[in-house]
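Supplementary Note 3. Input sequence used for the single-chain structure prediction.
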Amino acid sequence: MGLSTSSYQQMEPSPCNLLSVKVIRMKNLRKADLLTQSDCYVSLWLPTASVKKARTKTVKNSKNPVWNETFHFRIQSQVKNILELKVCDEDDHTPDDHLLTIFFDVSKIQLGETVRLNFQVNPQGKEELEVEFTMESSPDLPENIATNGVLVSREVSCLEVQVDEGRIKKGSTERKFALTVEGSYEGTQNLSLSSCLCPASPARFHYIKYNHSELGIALPKMRQLSVTSSSQDESESLTLALNSLPIQDKVTIGETRTFDLHVKTKEWTQGLFNSSRKLDVRLGFDLCTEEQNFLKNRKKVVAAALKKVLRLEEDLKDHEVPVVAVTTTGGGIRALTAMYGSILGLQKLNVLDCVSYITGSSGTTWTMTNLYEDDDWSHKDLGELIIEARKQASKSKMSAFSLESLKNYHRELSQRTQAGYKTSFIDLWGLMIESMLNDGKDEHKLSDQQQAVNWGQNPLPIYLALNVKDNVTTKDFREWVEFTPYEVGFLKYGAFIRAEDFGSEFFMGRLMKKLPESRICFMQGMWSSVFSKNLLDAWHAADNSEDFWHRWTQDRVTEIEEEPDLPERPHEMATCMYTPAGGISNALRDILTDRPAVSKYHSFLRGFQMHNEYTQHEQFSKWKDTMLDSLPNQLRHTAEHLELVDTAFFFDTSYPPLMRPERKVDVILHLNYSGGSQTMPLDRASTYFSEQGIPFPKPVLNEEERKNLKECYMFEDAETPGAPILLYFPLVNDSFQRYIAPGVERSASEIELGKVDVSSFYSPYSTREVSLKAQDFNKLLKLTNYNIQNNENLILQALHAAVRRRKQSQTQSPSQAQSSS
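The predicted structure, written as discrete structure tokens, is reproduced below.
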């Protein structure tokens, strides 16, 4: 079942402008050489307008170099355009020295203005760069773009390169040459010419229509060739500016053969499934149509269940039905087992039908994917599922490492690579999970789970991962990515694709190449990718403070002033100067931030640019929590792949999808299965959401309570509109030691069964374990089942409070009601 196309964004016209940048001079330039002044030049890069960098000439041995060179850029007015002015010292025998880079937000220049600025890069040394900017209207037609206020999808053109073969002399051989359009979806393509009569197929490139793009033609290098064209240019390569096309030029290679090269551009009117007027990536922060329909159906189930468990006399009206969610944390085989017990307890209390969402990460995703293979699992006796889970948890895992299994893994990974995926050790880990938790191959896929939620018969499952960068720590950069049976998307960007399209290739919001949907084991490997930690992640896990290594591996980005002062607007980025770390620091950073393994999937954000006012967007601001969020050129670079890891690399949580205001969650049951401190995940969640300005109840626990935790705590913040009611279930063995069931004391012979070690170093439930003995599985299952059932009163109290809140919100003003909901 695909997503309805009506939820996908249409293209709308938006004007482009012409920006002229005149690099005038630099004063009091620092010395980069020991004996002479710097041999200085300035490179200019505006990645939203051109993939190529421009540069001035080099002024030799000068403290006050003068250039007076002008460069022109065509820019989209709704895009965040950050110009990078890089000052370099040219060296003949070694790489050029990078002295500094200035980041300048060109939206500070108003249409029709010419402004000359002096950038104060070192006020003490009176070092400054003088640049003049002019902004004019473009005579081009407005560009068709789509935007949600955070991301911008721009108009795409299609370039066709057709080769018609000419006369072929005797003895001629096959010729190969490369065609390149930097920044295009295709990048580089190779064409072969031979003596066969079949004409070569045209090469096609998709690129941003209004970018400064070029077609590079690298000719064969089998031997020295004389290359001529009708323009009499002699070279082994050609470069054609695409903004001057269509072009038809005759190119002659040596004396052995001749071919005609036909190049033309055209409007890209037809994508793989949709026309260019409609995107395949949904840009928007609202819930997709399918999830909205799910909620309508689920509300009927929840209303009936609440009437029963709360013993209400009347049916609840639609607006009186609260949204209840379960959130879980990871912990490998421990989390898998414990979650079965908790779900069983909720089912026995008839509370499971009151739940609309279940979120998971790491080990709990193993339980969830198993549950959702049954279209009606929450209304069936879970006994059979639990028996099978116990069997898989307790069996020997050695077969997962047998020679036969390794051969199967190799074959599967080879097939995955051939299908177009970039495989890694994490994919192998996924296959090992499948082998350890199943008796055979599991063909189940994420989108198959739609059948389990389409009629609202079960809660909607949401899985969570982090997108990271290879050379940056998780502490400094991460982005929440949620997975439902309907969609996969980024909370921060409001960008979503169909679940069945995850892993396929996209460009500028268009689906370019459909890949077969991954089997669920590969998703499990990615959601629990415990092998993706780098050395700095490990260091931060041990010491959360700013540390020596972190300080000494960072480049410096500092705000600088320009003269004269320009009027400031909230969405404009402050002018900054970037000073690179030294060579030793860069080498150290590469070592410390290298990830031994990471799950890589084709990025469906590829090509998107940031909206000019993205930092002011309310939803982006809620999830704006990393150092790169204010550096758009680094935030949305040209990376072809997402790098996805377990959320525990930041902190062990699956809360974020439930904190989206569109889901309007009233009650959250936090089932904690983390190892170590049982209060740390809750404390970190509370601190994080407080810093983000997201309503969340503050967990108040004194030191004595933290040392001797009970089975459940209820936290409510009536003073903060929109804050959910929170029921927190730490993984502890409290009254279970004395009671076999709520109100039923253990006999002397049953005391031993109540001793469940869930916290010591020697606990059988350590995260590092991949197997559990059957008796240990049963103990943990019964413990978490008991902990839920023994706190029925608190659960019902929270549900009563949520219903009461919903009813009260209808008596308030519309604005108050909206905040409360």
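The radius of gyration is 30 Å. The chain has a mean pLDDT of 87.
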